[in-house]
């Protein structure tokens, strides 16, 4: 989430990155290996929201290299 904001891109959120709303979800098109592993908060949101494996909760991940993403609200 912070990398997106630093790049000047909008990120949907109603919890300010606290890992509650899941509105900041992104679809990873390329580079899943360049994103930090899923933490417990993200795993809980994935289960409760039924998110597919190619979607990540952007406020809960760190970008470790090049990635290509999309969102439903861009
Ligand atoms: S901003 Fe709410 S879960 Fe990421």
TrEMBL record:
It comes from Bdellovibrio svalbardensis. This is (2Fe-2S)-binding protein. It holds the Pfam family Fer2. Transmembrane segments: none annotated. Residues 1-74 form the 2Fe-2S ferredoxin-type domain. CDD domains: fer2. Gene3D superfamilies: 3.10.20.30.
């Amino acid at each position: 989430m912070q990398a997106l904001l630093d790049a000047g891109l909008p990120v949907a959120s109603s919890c300010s990155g606290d890992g509650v709303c899941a509105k900041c979800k992104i679809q990873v098109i390329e580079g899943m290996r360049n994103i930090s592993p899923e933490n417990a908060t993200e795993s809980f949101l994935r289960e409760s929201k039924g998110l597919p494996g190619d979607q990540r909760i952007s406020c809960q991940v760190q970008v470790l290299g090049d990635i290509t993403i999309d969102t439903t609200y861009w």
